[in-house]
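Format notes (please read before filing issues)

Several people have asked whether sequences and structure tokens are stored in separate files. They are not. Every record keeps both together, in the order shown below: the sequence lines, then the token lines. Line labels are part of the format and must not be stripped during preprocessing.
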Amino acid sequence: MSHVKAGGTAKNTRDSVGQRLGVKLFGGQKVKTGQVIVRQVGLTKRAGEGTFVSRNFTIHAARDGVVKMTTRKVRTFSGRSVPRVEVTVE
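Then the structure lines:
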């Protein structure tokens, strides 16, 4: 027989590592072709001229240049206009 009483079970033992999301290169910084500018979940920031979006919504530079971030209005599915950041490479 056990000489220690039942301790119960722990439910908070699982943990996952962070996804390292966010802006990697800010406005005014130099960028080379293919470099990651923004890692994000969903299109919180939009890809503009000189950039492209990969399958996991990461924004990459399509050419060498300087990163520029501007705000523009984007129409949502419901028809509402909301401001979003647009990332371009000049």
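For reference, the curators noted about this record: Residues 22-89 form a domain with the OB fold (Dihydrolipoamide Acetyltransferase, E2P) fold (CATH 2.40.50.100). The chain has no helices and eight strands.
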